[in-house]
Amino acid sequence: MPPHTLFDGATEIRAAGLSLNLLCQQYADENLRHLVESGALVQCLFLDPEGDAIKAREQEEGYRPGFLSALNDLNIQILQQRVRQRLPESARDRLQIAVYDETIRFNITIIDGSTAVVQPYLHAARGIEAPTFLLRNDGGAGLFATFEQTFTWLWGKGTLQ
């Protein structure tokens, strides 16, 4: 499912993970600005580039120290400089960027409280090599609700940027 199918017309996007490439690298900055200008709330929660958890993930994936941190810094800067700073002042608070320092287990992207894209972080595997799950909210206490609760917990641990 291409990113524009997931995100175009969304009113709320909540994303937590390592570097959020689905939103930051695969979805056009202009489209993201348009969503926020149109009233969408976008919450982006990155693994802290300065934290201990990202250092552990770099080691687990076999990267040199600082490799994943640099990618996260880049994606955070893209959102801050190419998206948020170019928004009208009245819309900037609807693009929220935060970092957290917890062991990374999943990349979670929730769109409009109805659809979620979830990827586990597997031992010694890049995120792109892990299976991707597309979940629909059926209103029950299933997987969607579990990952929504996980996002909420992580967001509460985050520090706004």
Run of helices and strands: HEHHEHHEEEEHE
CATH topology: Endonuclease, Chain A
DSSP strand content: 15-25%
How many separate domains?
A: 1
Q: Can you tell me the residue ranges where pLDDT is under 50 for at least 5 consecutive residues?
A: none
Number of helices: 6
Structural class: alpha/beta
- Record the strand order, biggest sheet: 6-5-4-1-2-3-7
General form: globular
Proportion of residues in helical segments: 25-40%
CATH architectural grouping: 2-Layer Sandwich
Mean pLDDT: 94
DSSP E strands, number: 7
CATH top level class name: Alpha Beta
The CATH superfamily turns out to be Endonuclease Chain A
Tell me what the structure shows.
The chain has 161 residues and is an alpha/beta fold. It is globular and about 40 Å long. The mean pLDDT is 94. The two termini are 30 Å apart. The protein has helices spanning 3-7, 21-24, 29-37, 52-61, 67-83, 143-157, and strands at residues 12-17, 41-47, 95-100, 106-111, 115-120, 133-136, 159-160. The chain has a single domain, classed as Endonuclease Chain A (Endonuclease, Chain A, 2-Layer Sandwich), CATH 3.30.870. The protein contains six helices and seven strands, in the order H-E-H-H-E-H-H-E-E-E-E-H-E. Strands 6-5-4-1-2-3-7 form a seven-stranded mixed sheet, sandwiched between helices. The longest helix has 17 residues, at 67-83.
